[in-house]
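Quick one: structure for this chain?
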Amino acid sequence: MEYTDTEKQILALLDRTNFKNLSKNDVITYASKLNELRPEVAMQVVAQYPEFVKLIQSVMTECKSMLEKVIESDEASINRVYDTTDKVVFNNDESRKLFFNLADRVLSDYGKCLENPNLTPEEQKEIRVQEMEVLYMCYEKDKEIRDRDMEIVKTVDKKDSEKREFNWKLIGTICVSLIAITGVGGAVLGGNFNLKLPKK
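Got it. Here's what it folds into:
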């Protein structure tokens, strides 16, 4: 049989001179190209699989298994990130509490000092300045911890988004291959297969 240029290109990809004795992996790997074949050539490919439906079921089972593994891996990865995030946020909160408790004791001591009637106005002023410095340090510490918490949230969100994007690309690739395989069989068998990719 004489092949078209497109079919010759597909054969070159498969490193073959004809479409006989294709393995299931060949069909799956180059499924997106197989729908470019003329019906009579596609018939040769499908003729090698008299139980085409079983091939589709096999591909679907493999796809399902791959997707389940991706989801399990995704959940484990995200759970590790969340566990780490929870620990860091907890440690930040503990650090904040310790710092504020210390600051509270210092302010309490300054307050007791101010109760001394023998303090000069300059000494009172110095204690008030020191109190303000402690309050400013509390503000700075709180801001530092809040900034760290926000960075953690951004990191978790980025990781989560990257995993979801990767998963959707993988799912899309698997679905395209499945649709192409089904399309080849459908075209040859005269069926009208109108499968759609899932949407995010």
